[in-house]
Amino acid sequence: MDVLSEILFPVIEEAKRNIESASGLEASPEAPLFGDGGLDSMGLVQFIILVEERLQDVAGVELTLASDKAMSRRSSPFQTLGTLAEYIGECLAEEGKDV
Amino acid sequence: MSEPVTLVTGTRKGLGRFLAEHYLAKGHVVVGCSRDESDLKHERYHHFLADVADEKAVKPIFTHLRKTHGKLDHLVNNAGIASMNHVLLTPMSTVDSIFDTNLKGTFLFAREAAKLMQRQKYGRIVNMTTVATPLMLEGEAIYAASKAAVLSLTQVLARELGPFGITVNSVGPTPVKTDLIRSVPKEKLDALLARQALPRFGEPEDVANVVDFFLRPESSFVTAQNIYLGGVA
């Protein structure tokens, strides 16, 4: 599964419709997800919920993305779409899902 | 406008069953759950078998709500258990089960409900506390403590979920004649009732009245509140 094209890019479109601070989001791996040019803190919470729902719908997997593992990393997986895609890929691999 | 969608936990019997029927009578779609099968049959009622603290069993309830109704308007976190015992005789398994059902179950349902509610920037969550907490009821140490935690959770949830248009409040019933108080000796109950400003048993309608108030669309400016019944402060 291509996490960027199958999970995150569609979520960007939905986020732009439903999350106030999502207007500046870009469907690009380098685009910032949080902070300057990205989501505010409440927007990030809503974005993560959308991603978890899409993972459930498309991949049939229930992930909790804001886990202790994610939050304790030196470098946050929520910096850009690319870092988030990489992190989701790791989680899916741990679940035995093809990525 | 579609019917309000209301989720009530612990609907097999007691207050939960009453509330499920109460909101069905008001025209809501009602989703309920309990650990055992329910005999409540209604075209707008859907029942799930789930222990409220079991995340794997609970998640499908919210998947159903999202995919079938696309929304959730109200959550009534009714499911709760109690166990009357002296602290010196209370096993840790009882502590675990009471906190699992009363606190963790309430948190889990509130978290998942809020994920759905925030989509429509609207939601009402009502939790259950108890007069056993302010009355410091002997023999109910763990039950009272678990509900004190629910009260604290209610107040913090109200702040965190307020920006999403979700209110979170709680109601603290006096003893209502349900299975929850079946094991409490009569003299204990009489002594408890005597400490209320209005010394009588609560009725399910008394609880529903407060829940109705919290669920009203007009109650959008009422959050982080707890109402004890019977004149207990």
From the 3D coordinates, which CATH architecture of chain B would you assign? 3-Layer(aba) Sandwich
Question: Which value, in Å, is the CA radius of gyration of chain A?
Answer: 12 Å
Q: Which CATH class of chain B applies here? A: Alpha Beta
**Distance linking N and C termini of chain B:** 39 Å
Query: Could you name the CATH topology of chain A?
Result: Non-ribosomal Peptide Synthetase Peptidyl Carrier Protein, Chain A
Class from secondary-structure proportions of chain B = alpha/beta
| Discrete helix count of chain A | 4
Largest interface summary: A-B, 7 and 8 residues
How many domains comprise the coordinates of chain A? Answer: 1
Largest sheet of chain B: 7 strands, parallel
Helix content of chain B: 40-55%
Structural class based on helices, strands and sheet pairing of chain A: mainly alpha
Q: Rounded to an integer, what's the Rg of chain B over CA atoms? A: 17 Å
The proportion of strand residues of chain B reads 15-25%
CATH H-level homologous superfamily name of chain B: NAD(P)-binding Rossmann-like Domain
Average pLDDT of chain A works out at 92
CATH architecture of chain A: Orthogonal Bundle
Low-pLDDT sequence parts of chain A? none
